[in-house]
Structures are given as structure tokens and as C-alpha cells.
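[Protein data]
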Amino acid sequence: MKRIFSGMQPTNRLTLGNYLGALRNWVKMQDEPGSECIYCVVDLHANTTGYNPDTLKNSTREVAAAYIAAGVDPKKSIIFAQSSVAGHAQLGWMLSCITPLGWLNRMTQFKDKAGKDKEKASAGLYTYPALMAADVLLYHGTHVPVGDDQKQHVELMRDIAISFNQHIAKRDFFPVPEPVIMGEATRVMSLRDGTQKMSKSAESDMTRINLTDDADTISNKIKKAKTDAGNVPSTEAECEGRPEAKNLLTIYAALNETTREKVMQEYGGQQFSAFKNALSDLTVAKMGPITNRMRELMADTNEIDRILANSADRANTIAEPVLREAMDIMGFWRK
């Protein structure tokens, strides 16, 4: 059986990039025969960077609402808040104690997120790849759907699992997880800079399409999306050196579940204004139902809380035996 684990932080609002690069694929994976899917709102990871404790709980609900609105079915998949299963923090500490500093030093995400003044970054930001490993290994996860930028963390996760198995357990205790990178749009870029990933934490809201944006906001953002003086490319060769044009074509292809080549066959040579109109209409048609469902769910947070609580119980049922055995292997006393 495949046991699939993935999650997103409840910091800022989820974007079109989150939907195309992850959420839509999560929905497909939950329907694969022989797969068990665990999708977490990783609120412990939100502590690694600046966050607002007054809004964290509601942000966690909003991310859970986005999962459900996108099609993740709480009857088929487990949807829960990371902090509601104490084993994440416990196993995270246990694994961080056996993870060499040299392995963590290789993680490029710390350098990117810490910025120029890394001395002021939190210790949690530095060690969070070990907690990410615990997130998956706590459930004996076998597959991890991630974007290209997170693949390095899955490689570290694999190193930690192998090291634990060989040097501590002396047997194959943790499965060695496989990264799963899916789809046409695993890396959706900014609407204002085609060389930068679309980010929910970017300073300007015009760089992204939020899952909470209404139709007028989406149309305005796409209309003002950066392009260049040329027409819509007709071939991949014409996309070279034109990251913004390539990004818009990628978004259209992903939303329409086709390829960039087919999109270029239809729109190549046309002015960007016409293509943007078509992209706007397509985006509104695809995102509108998700936005509306999120609003319905957030209007009744009792239902979201019920789903999160029920799923936390289901997650604990899987996690507790794994944590107990890991503690026994490492020699910890427990009652």
C-alpha cells in the first residue's frame, strides 16, 4: 500500500500555484487504488518564520477549507492540523538529534528563507527539515508529493530514514520515502517576474492569484500580468528568454489539462491581450467553484473543526504505534 503524506503551512493565503502544483494532484492521488492519503496543515512549521498567533488558528481552518474546496475528501483522506498530533514534535526532536549538521548545512531553503541576516533566523527554521522528515516517517509514509524546491528535503528525509534503520534500529523500520513530482505546473511563477516562483508570502498581491480572489480581481491581475513586446510564442524555441510568456502558457495548459504545445498551436502569434482574456475566463471558470466552496466552509467553522478533530484522531491512531516503537528502539523509558 502507498501511504502518501504532504502538507502546507497556514501562513498567508494559498495561491493558484498551490492549487496547480499540489492540491489538484492530491485529489487525484486519493482516488488511486491502494493509496492512503494524509494531508496535513503544518502549523508547527509556521512557527519557524514570523507568524501571528492571533490569526494562526483561523488560518489553519482556511487552509483546511482550501483542501476540501479543491476536492480533497475527508472521507477518503485524513485532513488535520500538525500540532494536534504530539508525535510530530516528539519524533522531530528525536530525529534532529541524530541528523548531522553537515546534512542541514546543505539545505538551500534555509539560506533562501533566512536571507542576509541568518544570525537572526530561528533555530526552528534551520532544523525544520528534520521535523519535515518526522511528519512523513511518523506515519511510515512511502510517497511525498512535492514541488521541485522541496525535493532536496525529501532526499534528506531518505538519508535520515536509512541512517536510523542501519545504525539505530539495525533493521528496516522506517520506509524510505519517494518524492512524487506531478503535472504540467509543478512550478508556477510570479505574474510580475517569470523567474520567481509564485509565492503566498510575496510582498505584492499582484504577483499571485489567491484562492480567495473573486472574478474581477483575477481578471485584473491577469490583465496586468507582465509580458513582453512580442506576440504569444508559437514554439518552445520562441519561449526561450521569455519567462513571463512561458509562465502564462504553462498556467493555461495546466488549468485546461493540456500541454503548452497545444496552447501555442491555438494562440501562437496572437497578441497577448487576446490570450490574457482567454486565460482570465479559464481561470475564473476553474477557480470560481473553489473560492465559493471555501467561503461556504469558512462561514461555518464548526464543520471544519469537526473534520480536523475527527481526522486528528485517525492520524493519532496511525502515529502512536510508530512513535512508541521508535522510542523503544532509541531506548527511551515510557509508561
Remarks:
- The first strand starts at residue 2 and ends at 8.
